[in-house]
Amino acid sequence: MATQWKDSFSLHHETIDAQHKELFRLANFVENIDARTITKIELSHLFNEFFTYMRNHFAEEEAYMASIE
Ligand SMILES: [Fe+2]
């Protein structure tokens, strides 16, 4: 079941909200993968993109939280 972004999730921070929306998009893309047709290379690239994006997002989000204490 796909999870959809809701305005109630907003932190009222343009960059962080945009990153969260992108994470929802990536998560929904992964959820909708057809295991019968995706190749191992495609899956590897997809998860690499997903985890790289998450790592960068968490670093930015933690820096933001530290900045507002
Ligand atoms: Fe986050």
Summarize the structure in words.
By secondary structure, this protein is mainly alpha-helical. 67% of the residues lie in helices and 0% in strands. It has two helices and no strands. Helix 1 runs antiparallel to helix 2. It is flat.
Tell how many strands the DSSP assignment holds: 0
Integer-rounded radius of gyration:
14 Å
Query: How is the main sheet built?
Result: none
Helix % is: 55-70%
Distinct small-molecule ligands in the complex: fe (ii) ion
Helix run count? 2
Strand share of the residues? under 5%
What coarse outline follows from CA principal-axis ratios? Answer: flat
Low-confidence stretches: none
Arithmetic mean pLDDT? 92
Structural class: mainly alpha
H/E topology pattern:
HH
Distance N terminus to C terminus? 35 Å
Record keyword descriptors for this entry.
binds fe (ii) ion, 69 residues, flat, mainly alpha
Q: How are the elements arranged and paired?
A:
Elements: H1 14-31, H2 40-67
Helix pairs in contact: 1-2
Bound molecules: fe (ii) ion.
